[in-house]
């Protein structure tokens, strides 16, 4: 794992996007396609805004998966991650070869079965673009996270820290409005990605960054600490998120 720190969120996101571009272009050149995983949330907005600016990525040779989605909310809800990805990424690039979005609305168990079969058919996943939650979660793998779960996608219970974060970020009015369950990509599946880009700007993430990345310990109680075991993880921080390291 390599940690990169820059002065502010925009600069951090720009450098993370440049690294993502490099990985995607190399994958397309060498394998004929690039399979990647995309995260959502406020911390990823500038990263995605920078990524879609590049005109030398052949998006028609890429396949998209996304990390997680709430159980029970429709795509029209402003907090829907499907809605987020369509509005902040898909609508800004040429048509992708394949888009695999998570539908948590109707039958989440069946959705997991479908997604597990689909991602298992991929020869490789070239990149995962992720963040770190305020409680240290990776995707919606809440502490204590299951590092040994073999299925690529599972249904999880969201803890109150995660649910309160969604309220603070403006996605829901009250914690009672936040769903209690989500479909998430598991830790083992994320770590199967050849490259991981973890973009974590903002002072609100400083404590989580310290707890997860500040020493050599890897613990399910700090789920994102597992990234230290992945040789090709590049972490992008700004001065605010890195202040406690």
Q: Could you outline the blueprint of secondary structure elements for this entry?
A:
Layout: E1 2-6, H1 9-31, E2 34-38, H2 45-51, E3 62-66, E4 68-70, H3 81-88, E5 98-100, H4 108-120, E6 127-130, E7 153-157, H5 160-168, E8 181-185, H6 187-191, E9 195-200, H7 206-213, E10 233-238
Parallel strand pairs: 1-10, 2-3, 2-6, 3-5, 6-9, 9-10
Antiparallel strand pairs: 4-8, 7-8
Helix pairs in contact: 1-2
Can you tell me about this structure?
By secondary structure, this protein is an alpha/beta fold. It has a single domain (2-238), classed as Rossmann fold (3-Layer(aba) Sandwich). It is 30% helix and 19% strand. It is built from seven helices and ten strands. It has helices at residues 9-31, 45-51, 81-88, 108-120, 160-168, 187-191, 206-213, and strands spanning 2-6, 34-38, 62-66, 68-70, 98-100, 127-130, 153-157, 181-185, 195-200, 233-238. The strands form two sheets. The protein has a seven-stranded parallel sheet with strand order 1-10-9-6-2-3-5, covered by helices on one side. A three-stranded antiparallel sheet has the order 4-8-7. β2 (34-38), α2 (45-51) and β3 form a beta-alpha-beta unit. α1 (9-31) crosses α2.
């Amino acid at each position: 794992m390599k940690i990169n720190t820059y002065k502010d969120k925009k600069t951090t996101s720009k450098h993370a996007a440049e690294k993502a571009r490099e990985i995607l272009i190399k994958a397309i050149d060498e394998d004929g396609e690039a399979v990647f995983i995309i995260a959502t949330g406020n911390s990823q907005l500038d990263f995605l805004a920078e990524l879609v600016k590049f005109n030398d990525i052949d998006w028609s040779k890429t396949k998209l998966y996304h990390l997680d989605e709430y159980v029970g909310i429709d795509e029209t809800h402003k907090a829907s991650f499907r809605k987020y990805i369509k509005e902040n990424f898909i609508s800004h690039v040429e048509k992708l070869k394949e888009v695999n979005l998570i539908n948590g609305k109707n039958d989440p168990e069946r959705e997991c079965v479908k997604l597990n079969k689909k991602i298992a058919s991929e020869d490789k996943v070239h990149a995962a673009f992720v963040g770190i939650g305020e409680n240290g979660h990776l995707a919606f793998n809440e502490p204590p996270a299951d590092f040994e779960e073999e299925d690529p996608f599972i249904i999880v219970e969201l803890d109150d820290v995660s649910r309160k974060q969604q309220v603070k970020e403006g996605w829901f009015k009250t914690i009672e409005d936040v769903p209690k369950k989500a479909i998430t990509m598991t830790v083992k599946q994320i770590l199967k990605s050849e490259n991981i880009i973890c973009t974590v700007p903002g002072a609100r993430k400083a404590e989580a960054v310290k707890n997860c990345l500040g020493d050599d310990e890897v613990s399910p109680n700090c789920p994102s600490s597992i990234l230290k075991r992945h040789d090709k993880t590049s972490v992008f921080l700004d001065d605010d998120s890195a202040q406690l390291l």
